[in-house]
Each structure stands twice: as structure tokens, then as C-alpha cells.
Write a structure and sequence with these properties.
single chain, alpha+beta, 4-stranded antiparallel β-sheet, 3-stranded antiparallel β-sheet, about 30% helix, globular
Length: about 160
């Protein structure tokens, strides 16, 4: 062991290892909350997101619908007694995606929100198409005809 400590290559390696340990500890204890801290289940069927100040329905609508039906569902949703629910924007859905979590039903987001299907409509449209977000491996935005009854929707509201 004494020979290794005197070897300058070993000392360089040791310094590198110490720096890696220091920076990985600093990164992991950053101010960004973990998924468990970020999302708070509320006993009224909603989930609060402390990072974005959004409130989500704790479960999606439960069946495939077209985009207009999804929009109407969100506008009529009354979770937690609130009346200002809406369709989520793509970036809001993408913000839920977490490739490190296998949540309820195997979808990649917090376990505090239950999706019953992989894909959720978002509010963005272009012509006759609307975007949707895939909560499977890789998480991605895609486009589909608004009239197709192929995806589900997860209502959201701002708490500000």
C-alpha cells in the first residue's frame, strides 16, 4: 500500500475519485426536489406539483377519446371541487415524464398519478391534428388527427 501512495499516478487517480465523489454528492443534494417530495397527494383526487405550482387529476379520464372530447372532459372536470381545470400543454405533460420511475401501470412518471393509457392528449393543435405525449420509453411528442378516439387526457389546473 505504501508503494501505491508514493506513486504519482495513484495520487492523481485518488484526487480524481475524490472530486467525482464530491460533485456527485453536491449534485444529488441540490435544491431540486425528488419525485417523492415534488408531488403531494391530496385526499380529494388531486396531486399538487410543488415545482410547477400545478395541480393534476390523480387519474386520467380512463378511456380513449378524441381531442375535442378530451378538451370538454377537462373543462367539465370538478376534481377537488375546483372548476378551472383545462387540458395540459405539451411541456406540462413532458415535465411529468421521468425515465427513472416506473409508475402505476408501468408508465414513466410519479406513482402519485395513475395513467390508464400510455398516451395523453395535449392542448397544442396544428390544423386538424393535435399533439399527444407518450409516457413510454423515451417519452415523446407526437401528432394525431383530433377526431381519432385514440388517447386519454389528464386534467390540470394552475394553483397560482
Amino acid at each position: 500500500m505504501e508503494i501505491l501512495v508514493k506513486d504519482p499516478r495513484f495520487k492523481s487517480l485518488l484526487v480524481c475519485l475524490l472530486l467525482v465523489c464530491f460533485f456527485s454528492t453536491s449534485y444529488s443534494s441540490s435544491s431540486k426536489p425528488s419525485q417523492d417530495e415534488r408531488f403531494v397527494s391530496i385526499n380529494d383526487g388531486t396531486v399538487a406539483d410543488r415545482q410547477t405550482n400545478l395541480m393534476w387529476a390523480a387519474v386520467d379520464n380512463g378511456s380513449n377519446v378524441g381531442w375535442q372530447e378530451a378538451k370538454t372532459y377537462c373543462e367539465n372536470y370538478r376534481g377537488g371541487g375546483y372548476t378551472n381545470w383545462r387540458m395540459p400543454r405539451h411541456d406540462e405533460l413532458a415535465g411529468l415524464y421521468d425515465p427513472l420511475i416506473s409508475g402505476n401501470n408501468g408508465f414513466l412518471l410519479t406513482k402519485k398519478i395513475t395513467l390508464t393509457g400510455c398516451c395523453q392528449w395535449s392542448a397544442e393543435t396544428r390544423g386538424s391534428e393535435a399533439s399527444y405525449f407518450v409516457f413510454g420509453f423515451g417519452g415523446s411528442r407526437r401528432w394525431e388527427q383530433r377526431s381519432f378516439n385514440t388517447y386519454r387526457v389528464l386534467p390540470v389546473r394552475s394553483t397560482r
